Amino acid sequence: MAKQINVALIGNPNTGKTSVFNRLTGMNQKVGNYPGITVEKKEGTCKFGRNCKVHILDLPGTYSLNASSLDENVVIELLLNKNDKDFPDVAVVVADVENLKRNLLLFTQIKDLGIPTILAINMSDRMNRKAITLDVPLLEKKLNTKIALISSRKNLGFDYLKELIENYNQLPTKPCLHASNIAPEYFDRLQKAFPNQDLYKLWLVITQDVNFGKLDRNELQGVASFKTESTSNLKRLQQKETIARYKFINETLKETLHIDTAKAKDLRSRLDRLLTHKVWGYVIFFGILLLIFQAIFDWSAYPMDFIDSSFASLSEWAKNTLPPGDFSSLIAEGVIPGLGGIVIFIPQIAFLFLFISILEETGYMSRVVFLMDKLMRRFGLSGKSVVPLVAGTACAIPAIMATRNIENWKERLITILVTPFTTCSARLPVYLIIISLVIPDTRVLGIFSLQGLTLMFMYILGFGAAIFSAYILDKILKVRSKSFFVVEMPNYKVPLAKNVIITVIEKTKAFVFGAGKIILAISIILWVLASYGPGDFNDAEEIVKSEYASQNLSDDDLEMHINSFKLEHSYIGHVGHFIEPAVRPLGYDWKIGIALVSSFAAREVFVGTLATIYSVGSDDEQTIKSRMAAEVNPVLGGPLFNFASGISLLLFYAFAMQCMSTLAIVKKETNSWKWPMWQLVVMTVIAYVVSLAAYQFLR
Amino acid sequence: MLTIASLKKGQRGIIKEFSVDVVPLKLLEMGCLPGNEVTLVQIAPFRDPLYLNINGSHLAIRLEMASKIEIELI
To answer: Which Pfam families is this protein grouped with (chain B) (predicted)?
Structure first.
């Protein structure tokens, strides 16, 4: 029988752990979530020889076994629970040769748990250039382990690493240093109380605030009594433990590791000086932002247009090929456009994460955080909120996915909640058509187009609303988040194409299969509401035909009038009529009401819906525009789209959460319906109040 | 009292004792321990955060935390 070996990859962030994982597993990996939390679970398999299968779990990066975030809890919960199906037969601790000192802290802790452990020292190809020499045999002896010098960049040392993994049962399991030495008397008492338990495991159970549900409660009953030791005393012991470990590490490395420091830092410090410069730093950063903006806004337009037209023709094809009936119209008008509505986001998501993963791989992202932190902090955000907010001007969905690397939960939540205020590209068609209708085409000071200025004002308004609401949320949100700000400033590296590509694929998949399901479901619901109706809806054809019988309309025109009649009498049409009393004070009629409701699917649907209601055959902007300009307000007379109602609509779209995809992604990222619902209600109320005030004031 | 916050760019110091309750364990784990050497590498525009080299590892912390870690100049 083939044996399976469970391997856990553990290491500090920025050690290239994920590259090692990618090297070992190739594309044989899957990304999921740990049950109930939003922490990513990456696992993969590979085969060593014929009958040795290896299951590899890439654990979240952590600096130690003292957990302070959900990600880190995952690591310690797994390592403490021998019954977990993923419990490692062997742990591979990945370390960066240039940061060995800090990386070894985690290593000594894992050794203390008695798990067979291999030390994989990564980036060993840099040793020559950085004038680093390492006495591997001596270090192996001191640490009581086996060491593999590897380089995931140059693909070096992996054969030896695999060999070590395969023969894991020959690894020494004795710890290289005992935590118990820091307070012998306390640990003696602990061991006497639980003679059958691993001492360091007990110590972690006492000091860590993790989920013990998974651990065997019977075994550990009574451990809690040892918590009677005062918290500050426990903290002091933890501090002593860390100091003792560092002392051991410093002494060990003094004998085994030599770095010629003079040679080590030239390039790094020169780049740092430039990239965090008080002028050039910002100039470069805004240049990069502009490039990202250009990519998501402009370059992705080509594949998006292609996707759009492909799905349109697919839907047309389905309509013509399938036998007519409810089922085929569900496929052609509900499912296919719904799928199209998901796929259309892929280019933007892929572009954004292409840039983000390059920026992270190179180490530049930490410099951006460093540069922007103080500015953003005034609004309850973090230096890491900059990228999501900027990406939000293209689309809130990839932007919200990009908040993942904000460790502080409160800052991350605020970023997620305010990002939809930024002016995303779906608002643009709505803005453009309304601005061209209600803002006069004149110039200010002879040069600036008033319409252009209005559009710019809408962008500033969106960004301002995001920043302002962040400020308010920072004051009112009572979210427990104890983590504080410390950012590692990693060394600069050339990004590995493989890592970048895998990240892009992963993020895209996460969107398609996560938020995609919800988007598809809501599109189908909206389609049903628009395609079925009570009473008159079902006799639409006869009613319209008899109404226009005298006018001798062409088939196409008749068809348009039938569609328009159907929409008015469909369920969604009834919804439009039903909400009319609510939207009339904002200056809208029931037709705009329908457009508002259906554009909940996506904001740009507003224009298409109006086109259907006004029974203009095409989506052509000029035709819809002239038709909209001719629309008369049923109550007051005069044009329906005048300055007051136009501004009111602009403001409504600026503030309202008119995007189910965003709600779906917020649900996925916060792992609860509470925040998206909160967002939906609050943003809609703000939009309503502001539009109401604007209309009543301006009319 | 001299703290990391009072360092000038390029200056070095040795971290002195500090109270447990002030400095989070996370920072200790990053190498910010009594007896270790600290260099101020860069100051962000607006004087915050600070980019440090502590015991060979590079990290940035906010001014507020830096002003709680006592040092001795070298």
So the answer is: FeoA (PF04023)
